[in-house]
Amino acid sequence: MDKDTIAFIGGGNMARSLIGGLVARGRAPGALRVVEPVEALRTALAADFGVATFDAATGAAAGAGTWVLAVKPQVMKAVCESLAPLAATGRPLVVSIAAGITAGQIDQWLGGGQAVVRTMPNTPSLLGAGATGLFANERVDAAGREAAEALMSAAGLTAWIPDEALMDAVTAVSGSGPAYVFLLAEAMQAAGEAQGLAPDTARTLVLQTLLGAARMLSETGEDAATLRKRVTSPGGTTQAAIESFEGNDFRRLVHEAIAAATRRGRELSAG
Ligand SMILES: NC(=O)c1ccc[n+]([C@@H]2O[C@H](COP(=O)([O-])OP(=O)(O)OC[C@H]3O[C@@H](n4cnc5c(N)ncnc54)[C@H](OP(=O)(O)O)[C@@H]3O)[C@@H](O)[C@H]2O)c1
């Protein structure tokens, strides 16, 4: 078992982002293997990153110290069961990025007794700007945590979650979160157009405003409330808009939306 070798089971969008991030951070491509049934994806991964590709899981997974399970949730059970004999002998660190599949399910499908890190990345991971929640089961040691964190950091920021039940809240906040921003963008653009702006102009202004505001949030070190108050002069235009939002209970809407997503995540995980 080579602890530095990582086998990706599934070479789709998310695996590609992680592999690209790892190679860009200096990880030797020779230590990365990918199992992917689609030949065109295998060829592209080998050509773009110099990684070894396989069409069957067993070849790649044997001897690799870390397995990254990067297939769709629907096929995860079958994929894990096919790998169970190798997991029993190799005892790799298993990192799953599948939404809604618990560490306990993965452990059970792999035969039990496995070190499993369940992660929840989001779509900006595809650009290296992701936010990923990580949960480790009791079999994962300090070195395993470090390895999983280094892996997921290749796609953005990471946060450890102490209790797996909170992964549904992570899914609701950061997993689904980009869609809330996209919804806000849609609504702001439509509202700008309703006020007479040309669609292209409204789109450009909204896009740059969201980007600029997100950069202020992450780069100034100030919290959101402080930044909001700073642009809200008494009696001004921003105050008129904020009062309208607050009067329509914007915070309650967001609270309820995230609670609904958390509940749905819990239901989906329960099967
Ligand atoms: N994309 C995101 O933003 C995002 C965010 C959070 C979590 N995730 C999770 O990440 C996982 C992967 O998502 P993705 O967007 O990367 O999906 P994807 O692009 O569909 O990648 C999955 C790849 O795995 C391949 N595959 C299927 N069965 C396989 C097997 N038995 N052995 C090896 N490879 C197999 C698929 O091939 P076929 O097409 O032939 O089936 C596909 O190319 C999912 O579980 C998803 O829940 C994704």
Automatic annotation (TrEMBL):
> What EC number(s) has UniProt assigned to this enzyme?
1.5.1.2
Organism of origin:
Arenimonas caeni
Q: What InterPro entries does UniProt report for this protein, alphabetically? A: 6-PGluconate_DH-like_C_sf, NAD(P)-bd_dom_sf, P5C_Rdtase_cat_N, P5CR-like_CS, P5CR_dimer, Pyrroline-COOH_reductase
Which residue intervals define the domain Pyrroline-5-carboxylate reductase catalytic N-terminal in the entry? Answer: 5-100
The protein depicted here goes by the name Pyrroline-5-carboxylate reductase
Under the GO molecular function aspect, what terms does this record hold? pyrroline-5-carboxylate reductase activity
Residue ranges occupied by any Pyrroline-5-carboxylate reductase dimerisation domain in the UniProt entry = 164-268
Q: Which residues bind NADP(+)?
A: I9, G10, G11, G12, N13, M14, A70, V71, K72, P73
The UniProt gene name for this protein comes to proC
Reactions that this protein is recorded to catalyse: L-proline + NADP(+) = (S)-1-pyrroline-5-carboxylate + NADPH + 2 H(+); L-proline + NAD(+) = (S)-1-pyrroline-5-carboxylate + NADH + 2 H(+)
Q: Name one GO cellular component term.
A: cytoplasm
